[in-house]
Amino acid sequence: MLKTLLVLYTPLVGWVGLGWLLGHKLPASTPTALGLMLFWIGVPLSTIGFLRHANLAGSIWVAPLAAWIAIFLGAGLAWLWLQQQSRLVLSEQKKAPLDSAELTEGVEQQKLCTEVIVPIPLDRARATQGSFLLAAMVGNTGYLGFPVSLALIGPDYFAWTLFYDILGTALGAYGLGVVLAARFGQGKQTVWDLVKTLLYNPVLWSFGVGLCIRNVPFPAVLDQALYAGAWGSVTASLVLLGMRLSQISSGRSIQLAIASLSIKMLIVPLIMGVGISMLGFTGAPRLAMVLQISMPPAFATLVIGEAYQLDRDLTVTALALGSLAMLATLPLWLILFPL
User: What is the DSSP string of 39-98?
Assistant: First the structure.
């Protein structure tokens, strides 16, 4: 296992570290340009390239089903945790004596305690809850999950990762995630805006194209070039991740971030891994799903959070801590759910 992790961590830490350094040296607009290139060209082409070499045999439809179960499980556990913390704070407030000056603020204090677990302004309480829920739900299965799966499992079972991401994470983030953000945030977005977000996703279209042409014979040179380009996009994604992390400067909301990450990266993967094993899945398919379930929060949570004016401090803290925590949690899943 040590050799396997070394094979993974060397390029993972190396390319992300390079991106982090470049993020401090290059213009601030560089990550945006690289992200757009990957979104419209790199990731769609890599999707087609890897699909041509992926094994679609077996119960591959289980992958997106597992994704949706993990999303709802994460959201449910996060919501229960928020409610429990709110009750604890409210209980403490009721025990604390109020003087005459504080009595005038009693109603507002009780209202605040029912909605938030940390002392922040009342108008931001629901925004914090929204960011907490998103961080516990949606994982970085695209930019980070792809290279992790390819390094640990290989391209033969990449389709499990791809199905998990396209039909699970992507739809969950810009579907249920947007609904929750609209519920807890202050931004505005119509149903048509949501539909356009899904329809304009080039990865979704390349997924369909890749399925249609995966058995069409290509010249050997073209096929090899496409496959090499797919790996190049994975490398560029890791560099982009490092550049994005270099722009994160928030150090607040650490306690909330740790709680959300514990649900997203420990509790949910453990429950799902045991459940998947009980259903009879073992080896590469099981590990492929567990790895994606255990990924840190997606950068989509930051995009959605900013669109709906959620708690940016909590979101960026969860992104940074989660990306670091993944290096410690990966060995756990390799031990509990081996190939």
Answer: IIIIHHHHHHHHHTT----SSTTHHHHHHHHHHHHHHHHHHHHHHHHHHHHHHHHHHS--
